[in-house]
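WARN no homologs supplied; continuing
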Amino acid sequence: MAWRVRGFSRLVDRVLGTDIAGISPRELALARRARGATGPIALLVGRADRSVVTSTGTVAGDGDTRLGVTVYRPERGAPAAGGGPRPLVVYLHGGGWVVGNAASAGWLCSGVAAATGAVVVSVDYRMAPEHRFPTAALDCLAAVADLVADADRLAVDPSRVAIMGDSAGGNLSAVVCLLARERGGPAIRAQALVYPATDATLSSPSIRRLADAPILSLDDILGYRGHYLGPDGDPTDPRVSPLLAVWPSLKIR
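OK structure emitted
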């Protein structure tokens, strides 16, 4: 196993310090407060790109909720190529729908902003177990719609919108695209799914074959899913298993 994977696995275990299914409110609060890559973590994943200007704000969530966002604007406000508005990338963080925050992947979001010239906005959607499925997905859809509606103030192009997320954030990114398609907008040009969770039925053979994998074991997956869906959630709902929206009768053997 690569030393980076071993090191990151140990850091994750140290941060959570417990089985995710039995995490206490205090442990959950500590895990959610981790802000970006510092110290040993920065050696593994890298630091935020210093050419990118970072700011914070709020956007609309589902209902009357306001959600925090972290905005990454490249090249310290320099105009986009051709002088027009920049593309918009909405980033949804991972963490099993339970932990993480909008600033936790500053190294990634700033890197994307610097490399692409897009404005990247990372969203603090509401998380489980306090807010169970489908709150996170509806929050993210509302956030994307609000950002697109506010395109002029953000100096972004509402016709060039992408959504990006890792793990549970990849799940939410795919679900937001499905919901936007069903509801007639907002228009999303591209999605970038980084090791996304797309099948909450856990039907892939690799789930059992790699049940004791580092960083994310089967017990962890079940714990995160349990917090998000609750006792009555349906893992076959395409809003939590977007893969099933593409192949409703999919059975992986």
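The chain has ten helices and six strands.
OK
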